[in-house]
Design goal:
The protein is of the alpha/beta class. It is 36% helix and 21% strand.
């Protein structure tokens, strides 16, 4: 019986540190603050991006292709207009929390390698807090768009339908227009 209590206590302590799924975000509500890491020890905070339109993609290694059409369209939409590009912050976040402790280092290393290949900064959520606060899950891709005032303007868990990709890119364009 003593072992049963010990096992139950260990299980409870292990689960206590795990994030609980938050309620899904909705357009119109204030965006939760976030903190993600990159380049091993550097941190990006939502406060660092104040005044920018923030486009967040929450994904895992297995789900990064789900919204590839949207990500490609977004990158192609703004290369010529430097003024718009300066007003947009792309924040692709990879979930490394889902990996067990010994594998987390490999997850971070893989993200860094992919960032070099793509010539794009990728961020990692090591604690699971951002995924929790934003209602994202590691088994799908979630796209979140936050306006310059810090309000959620768009949330799509799962694949953005191909027919809606253009309108979502136009939403970002409209939000990023110089004031």
């Amino acid at each position: 019986m003593k072992y049963v209590y010990s096992f139950a206590l260990v299980a409870l302590l292990c689960c206590a540190g795990m994030p609980v799924r938050a309620e899904a975000l909705e357009a119109g509500q204030p965006a939760p603050s976030f903190e993600v890491s990159y380049d091993d020890s550097k941190v990006l905070r939502s406060a660092d991006l104040a005044g920018s339109v923030i486009v967040i993609t929450c994904e895992s290694r297995k789900t990064k292709e789900i919204n590839q059409l949207f990500k490609d369209a977004l990158l192609k939409a703004f290369p010529a207009d430097e003024r718009l590009r300066r007003n947009i912050a792309l924040v692709p976040v990879i979930d490394c929390f889902a990996y067990p402790w010994p594998v987390k280092g490999f997850c971070v290393r893989g993200v860094q390698d992919n960032a070099s290949t793509l010539n794009l900064q990728l961020y990692v959520d090591m604690s699971g807090k951002m995924f929790q606060d934003y209602g994202a899950e590691s088994d799908t891709s979630t796209v979140i768009i936050i306006d310059r005032k810090g309000f959620v303007r768009y949330v799509m868990p799962g694949k953005i339908p191909d027919g809606n990709v253009g309108s979502v890119v136009e939403l970002v364009r409209g939000l990023a227009q110089p004031r």
